[in-house]
Amino acid sequence: MRSTSLRRWALLLALVILAPQVTGCATSQARRKHRAQLQSVLDQGLMLLGQSRVRVGKTPFRSDCSGFVAACYSRAQIDLIDPMAGSGSATATMFRTLKKRQLPVRRKRAQPGDLAFFHNTHDRNGNGLRDDRFTHVALVEKVERDGTVHFMHFAGGTVKRGVLNVKNRKQHLDPYSGKTWNSHLRQGRGRTLAGQLLFRFGQPLPPP
């Protein structure tokens, strides 16, 4: 009986010692997978820069802002649109999909790989008012220490880069250095900066 009891205690002790190592290994693997998926998304975005047609290999996507981000995330085998998330524009459905999947949605802080959702980038309904929700979406490429967000998006017929800075959303340039803080995202009459039109950032990749 005593030897059996000792063996049980030895087994329990071994499990206590090994459990953190097993958990740590699983966490490390999840982080590596997350980094690999994120890199594949960003790499696809970079490959499409300057392109007027959105394709991944032989697979065509819509040549617009939502088609571009969908193409990028297809490389990570993530569908940005859940058919059960409701109807409406593709951009609005993407946002609702994030909410439905209970993925992070943030107002100010962005991370590489996030989607940036914008309102009123154009007068979609043609009524002359700024009441057009979810008119544009972009892919966050990187974030500088001062909060300047670099993004890739399909606009004006091609995939291109843009920037926004939430802290200085009403300023196009840094008055001291001349650095661009915000791209003009709404063109023509009523020209407006990206930071002013930003609604939310959303994270399609589940946290590791």
Properties at a glance:
six-stranded antiparallel β-sheet, single chain, alpha+beta, 208 residues
Read across the widest sheet, the strand sequence of neighbours is 3-10-4-5-6-7
Radius of gyration: 22 Å
- Count of discrete alpha- or pi-helical segments spanning 4 or more residues: 4
Poorly predicted segments: none
Report the oligomer: single chain
Shape: globular
Span of the ends, CA to CA: 45 Å
Fraction of residues in β-strands: 15-25%
Quickly give the structural class.
Answer: alpha+beta
Helical residues, percent: 25-40%
Encode the helix/strand succession as letters: HEEHHEEEEEEEHE
Largest sheet properties: 6 strands, antiparallel
